[in-house]
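Page 37, continued from 36.
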C-alpha cells in the first residue's frame, strides 16, 4: 500500500509542531502541504513557526500556505487575545527554534485547499488541528469542497470540560461559526478528537527524557516543546498525572498510523455560537436527545502508551 496523503491545517503552536514533525517524518505518510490559520498566535507567527519546524527537520520541501488572519464572521475571538492568556503561555508568538530560512508559498491557504481537492486523483486526508476558519472559508468559496474531501480528522471540541472556558475547547471557541459550518457541511467522514481523548494521551517528563535521548532534532524539539507544556499545565491546568501534558494535535496523526490509539463513538455534534458562558461549546448528543443524525465519530478515550511509542519510534 502506498503512503497515506494528508494536509495539515495548523496554528503552530507547540503541539501543532509535534503533529507537523510526525506527519513529515513517518515513512507511511506523505504530508502534501501545510496551511496556517489565526489561532494560538496571529497567523504570521503560526506560518513562521511552521517553517522553522520544517527547516529544523530538513523537510523544507513541504509547502506552507498562509491562511485566514481572523475568524470567519467575527472581528476577533469571543474574548480578544491578550498577552499572558492561556495560549500565550503555552505557545507564545515565536517557537524557540532557529528563524526560518525557507519561505511560505505565494498562494492563499484557502485557494490551495480548494484547488488541491478539486484536482485530487487520490485520497488526501484533511487534518485540521486549529480553529476551523480556513476549512469554513473553503466551504464558502466552493460548497462542493465538502464532497471533494474524503475524510477529516480534526482536533477540537470537548464533552466533559473545556480548556479555554469551562465549556469550550480553544479551536472551536476561537471561531465557533466556522466550526458550526464544518460540522453541518455534510462531509462524509469526520473524526473529532476532543479534549476527552487528548487528556488521556498524556506525555510525561520521563517520556521527554526518552525523546531527548534519541539524539535527533525531532526528538529534541518534541521534548523541548512538551517540557514547556508540562510546566504551564502544572502551573495553570494540572492534568490527572502530575508533570504531564497533552500534545493534542499529534494524537490526530497517531490515529492515522494506529487507528486504535483512540476509541470512537458516532454522535451528532453541533456548536453553540451564542451564550456568555457557552459560546464555542461542542454539543455532543451522546444520548440521542436531539433530532440530528450522527455526523461524526467522536473520540472519548486514548492509549497514551501507544501514542508515546509512536512518537519515540518515528523520531528515533
Ligand atoms: O485546545 C487545544 C488546541 O488548541 C490545540 O490544537 C492547540 O494547538 C490549540 O490550537
Ligand atoms: Ca493547534
Amino acid at each position: 500500500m502506498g503512503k497515506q496523503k494528508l494536509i495539515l491545517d495548523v496554528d503552530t503552536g507547540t503541539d501543532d509542531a509535534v503533529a507537523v514533525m510526525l506527519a513529515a517524518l513517518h515513512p507511511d505518510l506523505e504530508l502534501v502541504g501545510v496551511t496556517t490559520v489565526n489561532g494560538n498566535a496571529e497567523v504570521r507567527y503560526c506560518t513562521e513557526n511552521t517553517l522553522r519546524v520544517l527547516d529544523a527537520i530538513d523537510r523544507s520541501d513541504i509547502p506552507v500556505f498562509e491562511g485566514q488572519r481572523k475568524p470567519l464572521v467575527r472581528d476577533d475571538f469571543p474574548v480578544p487575545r491578550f498577552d499572558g492568556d492561556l495560549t500565550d503561555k503555552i505557545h507564545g508568538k515565536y517557537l524557540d527554534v532557529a528563524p526560518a530560512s525557507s519561505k511560505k508559498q505565494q498562494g492563499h491557504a484557502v485557494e490551495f485547499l480548494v484547488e488541491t481537492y478539486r484536482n485530487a486523483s487520490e485520497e488526501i486526508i484533511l487534518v485540521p488541528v486549529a480553529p476551523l476558519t480556513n476549512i469554513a472559508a473553503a466551504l464558502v468559496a466552493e460548497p462542493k469542497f465538502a464532497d471533494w474531501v474524503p475524510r477529516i480528522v480534526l482536533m477540537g471540541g470537548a464533552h466533559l470540560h473545556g480548556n479555554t472556558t469551562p465549556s469550550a475547547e480553544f479551536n472551536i471557541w476561537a471561531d465557533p461559526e466556522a466550526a458550526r459550518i464544518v460540522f453541518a457541511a455534510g462531509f462524509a467522514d469526520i473524526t473529532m478528537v476532543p479534549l476527552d481523548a487528548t487528556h488521556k494521551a498524556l506525555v510525561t517528563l520521563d517520556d521527554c527524557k526518552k525523546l531527548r535521548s534519541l539524539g535527533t532534532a525531532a526528538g529534541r524539539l518534541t521534548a523541548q516543546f512538551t517540557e514547556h507544556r508540562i510546566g504551564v499545565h502544572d502551573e495553570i491546568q494540572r492534568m490527572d498525572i502530575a508533570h504531564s501534558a497533552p500534545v493534542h494535535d499529534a494524537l490526530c496523526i497517531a490515529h492515522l498510523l494506529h487507528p486504535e490509539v483512540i476509541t470512537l463513538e458516532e454522535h451528532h455534534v453541533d456548536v453553540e455560537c451564542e451564550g456568555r458562558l457557552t459560546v464555542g461549546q461542542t454539543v455532543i448528543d451522546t444520548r440521542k436527545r436531539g433530532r440530528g443524525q450522527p455526523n461524526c465519530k467522536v473520540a472519548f478515550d486514548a492509549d497514551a502508551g501507544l501514542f508515546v511509542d509512536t512518537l519515540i519510534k518515528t523520531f528515533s
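The longest strand covers residues 29-36. Flag for discussion at group meeting. The first helix runs from residue 14 to 25.
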